[in-house]
Every structure is written in structure tokens, then in C-alpha cells.
Amino acid sequence: MDRPSLRQLDLFAQMVAAGSLARCSSMLGVPADTIARDMASLEMRLGYRLFEDLAGAARLTPAGRKTAQAMTLLVDDNPQLPDETQEAAVAAPTPVAMASAPPAPIEAAAPIILTAPLIPQRPAEPLRQSIMLAAPAPVFGHLQEKLATFEAANEDIAITLDLHVQSAEDAAMALRRGHADIAYFYAMGAPEAFPSRYGWSEQLNLYAGAAHPLARADSVSREDLAISPMIAMDWRSATRAIIEEALERGRARLGPVVMESDDMFAVMAALREGTGLFPAFGALARDLGRMDGIGRVRLDMPLPPIEIRQATSPRAAETPAVEALAEFLFL
């Protein structure tokens, strides 16, 4: 795979299947340090942690478990998630190659096992009502505590995730086709095609290496930006389009793109070397703002914030649990 984000998702699936960093390294013939770096870069990109004690027991966090369950949507355009109410294990994503060795479970009590379906050994429990939430992964990171609280208070409801939806167009399609009950998406305002409501905004900022002339300047103009090379996310990245739309609306045109990557460690290295400016928002922007050797560019004009909006399925009014979750997340 030549797309860094998909390569990292591939490695994440391999880590879940292997159950430990050492076993994954041995299975793939990839240095453990490389895998650890890719997992750290992926966590930074997603905006939440996937593993506890990666170098040791490599236990999945609750958010990591949800992400593993949604992997088929992250690496494939398959809109159907496994039903976590069934007594079957979650299958590994199709693009992940595991021909050489059978995967091992993470730990005996792990709720996600990437193996063949299990034969039920106990009487079937009553089916839980499933609610599908579609959202960009960083938005899920923002909502994960509320989602866990809602599930804990409503044991008859299971929330499954689609982390493939990013834009208003994605959300409209998922809702229309019945692949989502609630959708969150990035936008530069309310779409006209379907009803939605404003959740919150995240400021778009530009970052540069601390030694970069624009990082040291007290005020940076549009003219300064126009002659400054740009570091961008991979052109296939879902967030790149919304970033470019925000820059265009803010009339902040940057110079030529000199690097494209979703590998955040590569981006950070390029920033520190003075390669160019990098636009970011949300959890990624907050992380960059705390990094040594990287500074936020102080612009003499504000960039338009990126909105996170919520929309519900046309059938939500017929499902009290969906309406209840939508309101709970919105508060």
C-alpha cells in the first residue's frame, strides 16, 4: 500500500491479530520500533489512543476496540459493520495479508478476536438494539466518553461505528442508504441538501518549524503565505479537501505543495527542517502546538473555522433510542 494512512491501518489490524508488538514484528519481519512509530503516528492522526502499554501487553483501549470493529469501513468501502450483538468474532479486514501465520488473540478476555467465527458455547442472549454512528475518527475521539456513558446506562443498546464518513456528501449518502442513524461530518456551513445542526467548530491553524522565519514573525500576511511552500496531507486524505476549502474561503493561498503525507512523524520532521507550512485543525492541531521545535504561525487575518455538524436519519423519529443518543451527544 502506498498510502501512509492505509499502511498504518494495515499495521494496526496486524497488531490486533498478533496480540503483542514483539509477535507482530516477528510475524511481519518489520522492526518493532517501526511498528511502534507507525502506531504513534496513527494515534496522533486519529486524535485518540489505540493501545495501552503498546510495548508490553498491548491492550486495546475502548476507543481502540471500537476502531478495530470499524476496520472494514476504514480500509474498504464496505458500508456494513459486523453486528456486535451476534455471538461471532470480528473478521480481519480484507486488505490485511496474514497468510504466513494464524492470528493470535490479544488476551483471553479481549472482546475483539480477529479469527474465524466461533461456535456459540452458551445460550444466545437477547439481541441488543444497534445504533450506527458515522463520524470522522477524530470526532469519535471527541465523543467517545459520552458514547461509553450512554452504552453503560443503556445495556440493551450497542453503538457501532462507521469511521468512513467525513464530508456532508458522505453523511448524506450514509443516511440515505440506511448505513448510519446519526452522522457527524466536517463542513464550512449548513448543507442545503439535508437538515443538520451545528455541533462545534475547530480552528484551522498553520504550523511551521520553530526556526522558520514565519514562525518567528509577529504577524504574517497573505502575501507572505503565497510564497511559502506547503506541506499537505496525502491528496487522498479525507480532511485535505475541507482544509483546502477553508484556506480558499479565508483567501489564504499557500505556495506550491512540496510534500504530501499522512505520516505525522514525517510531517513533524519536515516542519522542523523548515520544509514548509502545514495546515491542521482539531486534535492534530492541538498536538502540533505542544511539540518542541514547532510553532503556530501568527496570521494577520483569521482563517474560517471548520464546523462539525450532526445529522440524523429520516427514520430517527421512529426510533426513540436514536433520538435519545443524538440529543445526549449534542448536549
Could you walk me through the main structural features you see in this protein, from its secondary elements to its overall organization?
This protein is an alpha/beta fold and 331 residues long. The protein folds into three domains: 116 residues, Winged helix-like DNA-binding domain superfamily/Winged helix DNA-binding domain (Arc Repressor Mutant, subunit A); 101 residues, Periplasmic binding protein-like II (D-Maltodextrin-Binding Protein, domain 2); 101 residues, D-Maltodextrin-Binding Protein, domain 2. The protein is 38% helix and 16% strand. The protein has 13 helices and twelve strands. Helix 1 crosses helix 2. The protein is globular, with a radius of gyration of 21 Å. About 14% of the residues have low confidence.
